[in-house]
Amino acid sequence: MRVVIQRVKSASVDVPAEGYRAENGPGLLVLAAFADGDTGQDLDWTARKICALRIFDDENGVMNLSVKDVGGEIMCVSQFTLFASTVKGNRPSYIKAAKPEISMPLYESFCSILEEHLGKPVAKGIFGADMKVSLLNDGPVTIIIDSKIKE
Q: Is the pTM here over 0.70, yes or no?
């Protein structure tokens, strides 16, 4: 599992074809991709890490608080392109990303686990849809986590 976490003032996801819109902020925008072999342990470890990351400023302007500490919100959007391989040629390969029948249930489960650890609902995109994601970065602060290398 691979995620990109961005600290945001606000974020939104629109799916015009479905008439769908979700928004949140301040808090985090999490872009999530899943690979074959990802397990519940990967989902739980990553969700715990995201909710505990001390990347929000305390009263002294030091990044010392988590999204939970500041009462922030989380939006999670599936993005299989995080597993792009650009080793050969100029057209990325997505062979490392799990197929939709595997990644869709992982995404739904991951969002539920995030909600459990955050203690409130998580805004979501629509899996597999053509989404328009907007955000107002805060910092900017962007963190990449891969559950297989715990980094």
A: yes
Neighbours of 70 (CB within 10 A): 14
For this structure, is 56 an active site residue?
no
- Active-site choice (6, 34, 56, 80): 80
- Domain positions in the chain are 2-145
* Catalytic site includes residue 81: yes
* pLDDT tens for each residue of 107-119: 999 999 999 999 9
- Of the options 3.30.70.100, 3.60.70.12, 3.50.80.10, 2.40.160.60, the CATH number for the domain spanning 2-145: 3.50.80.10
Can you say whether the dihedral through the CA atoms of 143, 144, 147, 149 is positive or negative? Answer: negative
Of 46, 79, 83, 110, which one is the catalytic site residue?
Answer: 79
Of 32, 143, 30, the residue nearest 97 (C-alpha):
32
Give the Cα separation of 115 and 19 in Å (integer): 24
Q: What is the pLDDT of residue 148?
A: 87
Reply yes or no on whether 80 is catalytic: yes
Residues 125-148, mean pLDDT to the nearest whole number: 95
Give whole-number Cα distances, 44 to 39, 73, 116, in Å: 9, 18, 10
